[in-house]
Write a sequence for this structure.
């Protein structure tokens, strides 16, 4: 949990720079999810977050249980101990996630473009800030994570 929090605080510095420059930011996971997940996994650290963190609009992408199992079976990698723990804790994770404000988006019968359209339709006041280039068209949007090759 501390490793994830450290990474989030580091990412927040860059997020704030983008937001200050008027550039919208999409983050796969932020503080609420990190703390919620680790509490559901048994972490009992008392964490007080700074009050000046950016407050995101949050979306929980869900799908029907049978679709979830189908998608999990199609993954190319084996399940890690964390994946297994998440599956064992799925109900408590769902209940914990419901304690913070989030928009639930059912992705069962949709494709990624439909999900984006749904999200944009929920945020009509923020739609003018949406980045309308195709994914991968700009090196700063969903850019690759550099890894060490040694």
């Amino acid at each position: 949990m501390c490793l994830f929090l450290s990474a989030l605080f580091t990412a927040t510095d860059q997020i704030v720079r983008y937001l200050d420059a008027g550039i919208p930011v999409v983050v796969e996971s932020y503080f609420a999810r990190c703390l919620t997940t680790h509490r559901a996994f048994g972490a009992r650290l008392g964490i007080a977050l700074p009050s000046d963190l950016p407050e995101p609009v949050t979306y929980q992408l869900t799908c029907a249980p049978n679709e979830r199992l189908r998608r999990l079976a199609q993954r190319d990698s084996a399940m890690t101990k964390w994946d297994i723990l998440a599956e064992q804790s799925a109900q408590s994770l769902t209940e914990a996630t419901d304690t913070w404000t989030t928009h639930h988006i059912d992705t069962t019968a949709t494709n990624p473009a439909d999900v984006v359209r749904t999200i944009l339709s929920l945020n009509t006041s923020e739609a003018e800030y949406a980045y309308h280039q195709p994914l991968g068209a700009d090196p700063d949007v969903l850019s690759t994570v550099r890894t060490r090759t040694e």
